[in-house]
Design brief:
alpha/beta; 43% helix
């Protein structure tokens, strides 16, 4: 099949949507499909159209359906689609879901967070990550208890929550938080710089490439994922595959990846609660080991083979639903 994948993220971007699009391109090409990743509709014909982001891609989805009514459409739902745009801009977001022949959700609880009439179209595709090289496995610093935060600095990520939690730590704590991520705007850059200047436990290192990010993860004892909304963060997959314990905000996007029994959830935007769990992980070896065992048990869910299998099932569902739709429409 000739497949087009549309993403709002430009080439070279380290945004999650771009990484997802390019990873899916690789997984689909590995089984013989021809795949192009685009940022705008192409005049070239295709056999399947995949749009990342229901709200941002709405105009493109609508135009594609009008121009090529017989071609299957898959819409991949992002966290902002599910937890913001479908409430603030329901007409456009839900119209994208309606026009799609299949929907992709990136965590196991998506079905409970979209309108019931669209759930029959839903396929769950957990994002994968490659395992770190054997030589790079867990090599934490011993002079401090290093904690990492990885991801763009933006409102949805609540990116400085771990830094703010540091202000609640007792004096005997050796915790240091390293935040790696590109600021969404000047305001976020200023906030990160000001926090770094006033918080001796916090360091902002800016945007890192993949190798640098992996090196950071291998030397840290813990990762914090503090988002207020997530569609299914790939950084969770990366942490699990790297054997890196996680403290995660208690939101569906994290529970849908780590499970209801995971022991590392903190209340959303509650830096006091996060500080308590950070200190517990630092000083309670049994607790940190429990988190380590739980992420290790989840690692098998985030292998590329599993993501490829689920992605191909979503493609087959889109094709089948498209045929049914065309048959109904005559």
């Amino acid at each position: 099949m000739q497949i087009h994948i549309l993403t709002p993220a430009q080439p070279g971007s380290r945004a999650g949507n771009r990484a997802t699009a390019e990873r899916w391109q690789s997984l689909l090409e590995a089984v013989g499909h021809q795949v192009r990743v685009l940022t705008a509709l192409s005049a070239e014909p295709c056999d399947l159209f995949i749009a990342l982001h229901a709200w941002r891609s709405h105009e493109a989805i609508e135009a594609f359906r009008q121009a090529r009514p017989h071609v299957p459409i898959i819409t991949a739902l992002t966290g902002t689609d599910i937890y913001f745009h479908q409430h603030e801009y329901p007409q456009a977001t839900h119209h994208s879901m309606e026009l799609a022949d299949a929907l992709i959700g990136l965590h196991q609880l998506v079905g409970g967070d979209i309108p019931p009439q669209f759930r029959h179209k839903l396929a769950i595709v957990l994002q994968s990550a490659t395992a770190p090289d054997a030589v790079a496995l867990r090599d934490p610093r011993t002079d401090v208890f290093e904690v990492c935060v990885v991801g763009h600095l933006r409102d949805e990520k609540d990116s400085l929550r771990a830094a703010l939690a540091c202000h609640h730590l007792p004096a005997d704590s050796r915790i240091r938080v390293v935040n790696a991520g590109k600021p969404h705007n000047r305001e976020w850059q200023t906030k990160a710089e000001q926090e770094q200047g006033s918080n001796p436990r916090f360091q902002w290192v800016g945007e890192l490439d993949q190798a640098q990010t992996r090196a950071l993860m291998t030397r840290c004892r813990l990762m914090v994922i503090s988002s207020i909304m997530e569609g299914g963060a790939n950084v969770v997959s990366e942490a699990c595959r790297a054997g890196l314990p996680v403290l995660a905000s208690d939101i569906p996007g994290n529970r849908g990846l780590l499970g209801d029994d995971y022991a590392g959830y903190f209340r959303v935007s509650d830096d006091q609660h996060l500080a308590e769990l950070l200190y517990r992980a630092e000083h309670n070896a049994d607790y940190l080991n429990q988190l380590h065992q739980q992420v290790a048990a989840k690692a098998a869910a985030f292998v590329p083979e599993s993501e490829q299998r689920c992605l191909l099932w979503a493609v087959s569902q889109a094709v089948a639903h498209s045929r049914e739709r065309i048959s109904r429409e005559g």
